[in-house]
Structure to design on (71 residues):
């Protein structure tokens, strides 16, 4: 039930991917995935607020790549 409410919160919070703090604590995220702390959110039908994180993929540049200047 909580996971369904978190999924529904994607629309209201305008975030494509959300995860609970419990899930974030129990997994190791890949280096290219950033987790933004959204704080505690009240979910419909859930008695206590749930700490949520918004997940997003970030571009990771390897050290061997150099930035290319454009003019």
């Amino acid at each position: 039930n909580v996971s369904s409410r978190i999924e529904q919160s994607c629309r209201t919070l305008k975030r494509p991917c959300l995860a609970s703090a419990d899930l974030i604590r129990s997994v190791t995220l890949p280096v290219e995935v950033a987790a933004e702390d959204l704080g505690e959110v009240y979910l419909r039908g859930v008695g206590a607020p749930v700490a949520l994180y918004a997940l997003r993929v970030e571009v990771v540049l390897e050290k061997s790549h150099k930035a290319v200047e454009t003019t």
About this structure: Confidence is low (pLDDT under 50) at residues 67-71. Residues 2-12 form the longest helix (11 residues). The CA atoms of residues 65 and 71 lie 19 Å apart. The chain has two helices and three strands.
